[in-house]
Specification:
Length: about 260
């Protein structure tokens, strides 16, 4: 139930969807006796869209998330294992073409190529089922397994968890699958923006992890946003950052984390 509700709310609560809904409502009211209210709504919607597309909104929302957890120091002890979270696969395109088709978070899947060269004895685990509300013909684990075997990373020793649909299930099912022992060191590989929520969930289920953030979208400087390279990327950053902030709130309210904004 939580998964379905979260997906519906994710669609309805999308900043760009809300702005476009306000715009449509404003335009509709403009042709009625409530044309003054329609004009105000249209102006508000246009301002929101312009701020998202050309302003620093996305950057300022994303920086606190991306800078919350730093990666381990270079002289840190080798990890016993590496957990890679799903969220990097376009399920529909992967199913259509029969091979891994990546989203913007592809670095989640490519980072282990370097990590296993540094830590060849570490156990590698990928966790990701299908995040689609509709029936899916494949899972993220299937696509990642296909890619890792093609590049020689998987020699038959990688563990795949293919039932999880969200971050909470990633943590819960992976813990049950690998049964980490007390004192073991496990790296958690996911997008920097997603790391606070991911670490909070893993802590909640009793699986301590060490953050290894990838897929950075900002320069880490709150007041140095610069001019967005293109409107699509700028709006995407707003969407992703708001998704994480709302996710942090929802996970805290439903008891899936112990802190609203997990800290190192």
């Amino acid at each position: 139930m939580f998964f379905t509700i979260s997906k519906i709310f994710e669609f309805i609560g999308s900043p760009s969807h809300l702005a476009l809904a306000l715009l449509a409502l404003g335009v509709g009211l403009a042709y009625t006796r409530y044309f003054k209210a329609g004009r105000r709504l249209t102006t508000l919607a246009a301002a929101l869209l312009l701020l998202m597309a050309f302003g620093p909104v996305g950057h300022m929302l994303a920086v606190p998330l991306e800078t919350r957890f730093a990666g381990p120091p270079d002289d840190a002890a080798p990890p016993d294992g590496i957990v890679v979270l799903g969220g990097s696969i376009d399920e529909a395109l992967s199913a259509q073409y029969g091979r891994a088709s990546f989203s913007q978070a592809a670095e989640r899947v490519t980072a282990p190529l370097e990590l296993l060269r540094l830590y060849p004895k570490a156990r590698l685990v990928f966790t990701g089922g299908s995040a689609s509300l509709r029936a899916s013909t494949l899972t993220e684990a299937w696509a990642v397994r296909r890619f890792w075997r093609a590049v020689g990373l998987d020699q038959g020793d990688v563990v795949y968890e293919d039932r999880s649909r969200n971050t909470f299930e990633n943590a819960l099912f992976t813990r049950d699958l690998v049964k980490p022992k007390e004192g073991e060191r496990w790296l958690l590989v996911t997008s920097a923006m997603h790391m606070p929520r991911a670490v909070g969930v893993f802590r909640k289920v009793g699986f301590p992890v060490i953050a290894y953030p990838v897929d950075f979208r900002t320069n880490g400087a709150f007041w140095r946003a610069g001019v967005p390279g293109d409107t699509g990327s700028a709006v995407s950053m707003v969407e992703n950052a708001m998704h994480e902030w709302l996710g942090l709130i929802a996970y805290r309210l439903t008891g899936k984390t112990d802190a609203l904004f997990p800290a190192p």
